[in-house]
Amino acid sequence: MKNDSIEHTEYKGYDINIKQDENALSPDEDGDDELFLVHYHRDFQIERTKIVSKDDVRQIYQTGKHPLLKEYYVFRVAALIHGGVTLRLESGGFAEDSSGWDTSHVGLVFAEKTGFTSKVKAENAARSLINMWNSWLNGESYGYEVSGGDGKINDAVWGYTETKDAIEDAKSAIDYHLNEAKKQYSKMVKDITRGVKKKPIPVKSHLRNGWPVRQHRRNKSGKRERCEQCGKFLDVCGGHIGEQGYGI
After folding, report:
1. How many domains does the chain have?
2. CA atoms within 13 A on the CB side of 204
3. Residue 47 placed within a domain
4. Domain identity same for 162 and 204
5. Domain range holding 110?
6. Final residue of a domain: which of 109, 137, 165?
7. Range 65-81 average pLDDT
8. Which of 51, 53, 65, 72 is the right S-S partner for 110, CB 3.0 to 4.6 Å?
9. pLDDT tens digits for 30-58?
């Protein structure tokens, strides 16, 4: 077990180590214009200047009217700022700050109407976004590393907000790897017994050293990963058929 692991488990002969993601990207760094937060407090400033300004937000708060409301569902955000930042998706206060001295109301979540078929769905997505922000603000970002008996890291994925999700995905990656190895080995044996020349087996997946890659995650350095088979970013190239040899 690694010294910096916060959780460790063994699964089918592999070690799974859960670690703190020290280079976790904020939910704002993906630049998603379909669903985003803006906030205007000196201790927590999040802007999206190409779409909305501080004056726009002030007008929405004061009048409830603005041309942007034709394009976006908008939800008010309250923030408790005292030795840290905690967000909630509504204009009410926080029980731990009943007087309201440390609670600000200068933020909004925008959800583009073309991306959400109803306000209910948009609100659910907005709440999920606020949960992501709270996890990031509290340092609740994790990743997993899978290694074999030799200690070599076979797979590593980062960007989780729950350790249980990281463990579940790590186990899925191990299962996938073992199942593919088993299928390739079985095919190789059949080809040898039939005297058929071995040839690569097409496998429909994004692979990194024979391991499935989670398209919505980023690597340890926080950079988007490229598919080794086509060279495109994993989150934009979609599924395709790639040639994988026996490599067991």
Report:
1. 2
2. 3
3. yes
4. yes
5. 35-137
6. 137
7. 95
8. 72
9. 788 999 999 999 999 999 999 999 999 99
Helices vs. strands in the chain: H and E counts, helices first: 4, 13
| 153-160 vs 142-147, strand pairing mode | antiparallel
**Residue 29 located in a structural domain:** no
Asked if residue 167 and residue 127 are part of one domain, the reply reads: no
**CA–CA separation, 17 vs 94, rounded Å?**
36
Give DSSP secondary structure letters for 151-189. Answer: --EEEEEEEES-HHHHHHHHHHHHHHHHHHHHHHHHHHH
CA angle (146, 175, 195) in 5-degree steps = 115
SS3 label, residue 215:
coil
pLDDT value of position 229:
56
pLDDT at 209: 54
Residue 11 maps to a domain: yes
Tell me the range of 34-48, 139-153, 195-209 where mean pLDDT is highest.
Answer: 34-48
For the chain, the first-to-last Cα distance in angstroms comes to 25
* Residue of 83, 30, 225, 248 whose CA lies nearest to 143: 225
**Residue 229 within a domain:** yes
**What whole-number distance in Å separates Cα of residue 122 and Cα of residue 112?**
8
